Amino acid sequence: MNTKLAAAIAVVAAFAITPAMAQQKQEPANEPAQKEEPAAPKATKADIQKVVDGIKADKAKTTQFCKLVKLQDDFTAAAEKKDEKKLEALDKEMQDGAKKLGPDFEKYVMDSEMDEDASTVLDGLAKSCK
To answer: Which of 7, 62, 79, 104 has its CA 20 to 30 A from that of 121?
Structure first.
């Protein structure tokens, strides 16, 4: 998988859990601790292929996916510059864009781990955007 795309997806996933972690740290000491979240599910190549096929079959979703790829590039650049305000804005835009690609995209791409074969399938779609 394109390392830039993989890194951007990892960063997006990290930012998605940051607010939840911040809320946990702010809990009063007298409240019981919340249960830890289970490990993220592992997306298979077949899961990702199904998502990619769905995106390819819908021109609006293909356009939206390509916008996400561009946003990920912008996000990476903002991260290198440590531009927190821009990172927050891009993160929100990316989360909103991911929702437009449907629940399977969020479940298998944003909220799970992918093996190398699954990543390769997603990378092929990303390359078609350039």
So the answer is: 79
Residue among 59, 56, 51 nearest 9 (CA): 51
Contacts of 59 (CB under 8 A, 6+ apart): none
CB 114 within 8 A of CB 48: yes
Q: Name the helix (H) or strand (E) containing 94.
A: helix 84-100
Using alpha carbons, list the distances in angstroms from residue 106 to 14, 24, 32, 43.
14, 23, 30, 11
| 75 half-sphere exposure, CB direction, 13 A CA radius | 27
Give the pLDDT confidence of 12-68 residue by residue, as tens digits. 444 444 444 444 445 455 555 555 556 667 888 999 999 999 999 999 999 999 999
Give the end-to-end CA distance of the chain in Å, rounded to a whole number.
Answer: 15
The C-alpha atoms of residue 28 and residue 107 are separated, in whole angstroms, by: 32
Residue 64: CB atoms within 10 Å: 19
